[in-house]
Each structure stands twice: as C-alpha cells, then as structure tokens.
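Many introductory courses stop at the sequence. We go one step further.
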Amino acid sequence: MPVSGSRFFLTAILSILIGSLHARAQGSEWTRLNQAGMKAYGQGNYIEAERNFRAALGEAERSGARDEQLAASLNNLGVLHSITGKPDEAIEFLKRSVSIREEVLGPMDPVIATGLNNLADIYRTEGQYEIAEPLYRRALKIWERNYGSEDPRLAPVYLNLGELFRHQSKFKEARELFDRALRALESSNQPYPLLMATCLNNFAASYADQKNFAKALPRYRQAQAVLEKAQLTEHPTMATVLRNTATLYRDQGKYSEAEPLFRASIALLEKALGAESQNLIESLSSLAEVCRFQGKYDDAEQLYRRTLAIQEKSFGSRHPSVAISLEKLMTVFTDLGNYAEAERMRDRARAIRSGFAP
C-alpha cells in the first residue's frame, strides 16, 4: 500500500542539536560557526545553515584531529544534505561522523546513536529498510541503556522506526512507536514543538494511508496548532504538515480546500530551500493536479512545466520521473483539445521509457 510522504525535516531535528551540543572540545571560531549553523537550521534557513556548517567543518579539518568537533560538523552536514535531497553525500558525511565517534567515545556513547539514527533515516527514505532497521535498533539500544526508555531524547528514533514500519504498512507497530515518542515528550518539562508536531503528523499519516480521513485530519490540525503556538509557522516542518493536510483533502476530492494549503507549503519550501529544490517536486505536481481537476489548465500547465524543469535539472532529461511529468502535461493538453502538443508530450515520454530519448 502506498503511503503519504512526511519526509524527515521532522525527525532529524533533535539529533542535529544533540550532535552539536556534545562536542567535547570547543574552539571559539568553530563554536561560533556551528552555533550560527544550528540557529539557521532551527529557523528553517537551510542555505545559511549549510554555509556555516561547511565553514565549521573547514575549521575542524584544519586542526588535523579526528575529534568530536569534526564528527559533529560531519553529522550536521549529513543531516542537512539529506534534507536538501543529496542522500549519497549525506551518507558519506554521516558514516565518517559515526566512525570518528566510535574511535573517540567508544561504541555505547549516546552521541553515536545520533549518527546511527540519522544514517538509518536516509536509508529509510531511500526505501532500503533492511539496512535502516538494524541501525535504528542499535541507536535505540544505546539510548535506552544510557537514558531509559521514557527519555525524550529517544523520541527521534521512535519516530523514525515508526515511519519505517508505516512505509511497510505495519500500522499497528508504527502507532505503538509514535505513541511511545508522544509519551516521552509529554513527560518532559521542556517543550519540543517540532518533535511533538512530528508525532501528530506521523499519527495522522498512518491513518491517511488507510483512508481513515476522520482520524487523520484532527491530528494534522493539532500538529499545525503546536507549530503555531511555538511561533514556527515559517519552518519547513509546517510545510510538511500543510502538504500532508492538502493531500488528505485532495484524496477526498476536496480540491478547493487542498489548493491553498499546497500553495502555502510550496512558499515555505521555496523560502527555506530555494525555488529549484527537488523537494518541491511532489508539492508542485500535486498542486498542478488539483488545478487541473478544477479546470485551471493554465496554472496546471505552468506547474507541471516547472516540475519538469526541476526534474530535468536534478536527475537529467532521461529520468523516469521526467516521463511521468510529460505524461501529466499530455493530459492537460488533451483536456484543452490541443492534440498536437499532447502527442508531442506523449512521444517524448515514450522515447524516455524505451531508452531512446535524445
């Protein structure tokens, strides 16, 4: 069964902060750059976060030491690259970080669980569940040994492992883990609005996957309310919640309710990631579909063409996703009675699928 996306803007937040705050050696310039990167990350300004994290990595590498500063910088860049759609680079950064920490801190230090959790999350989002699950379980074992099972620091791995089960349509197991994360967060005196929103979002998504819209929608609204109360309305996490809520309305045929939510989600992602980020592809395509179903063909064509441009830039003109967008454009032109243009889109898509695209 296909599952609705929730990405992991939401579930790597705490890990990046833990990884940074546990740096043992605090060089002043490295600390300044790293804290600036953390601040930008927390605000959802990923472009500025990457600039500072890369500068911090440069400072750490100049020392020549394989220490916690270097490991923290690698972890933070790994998380950031995973968010911005660069999984291969993210995996390399995180593997290096985990390797250094195991050498410096030993195999059961809780900071190592941070990297394992983040690394597992990339494999999960790439569909490599057989690699992701043992990494999550190892991270969970380390954190439980150090903190117990109810500590809020375990919430990210509960959420991520739950997402893995959700993507395998193991909804009962997924909700049990989401519930454990929620209880751990509620037991803390410290607020964790991003993680709390994640719990509610993931609970909602698990119900949406089963077309139980009545249980999904209130939880999406709760997630949005948590972020609004914490004044995080412009954070990319809000973009995820809005997109998922819009998808829920779309799947019920409520296109006029879905459209403004998709548009708001896209605006937030553009601000955080730039107008050409591949993270926009899903939302742009979904908004185009909603516009088409409402007879807004000019909007639909423009949105599909923008989706196509990002896909071609990100993946190349022969990628299968390009063929899918061409076929969606074909349907718009068919609806408009522009059969010549529709046939041109169809021929391009067929060429890609047959392997003979120019």
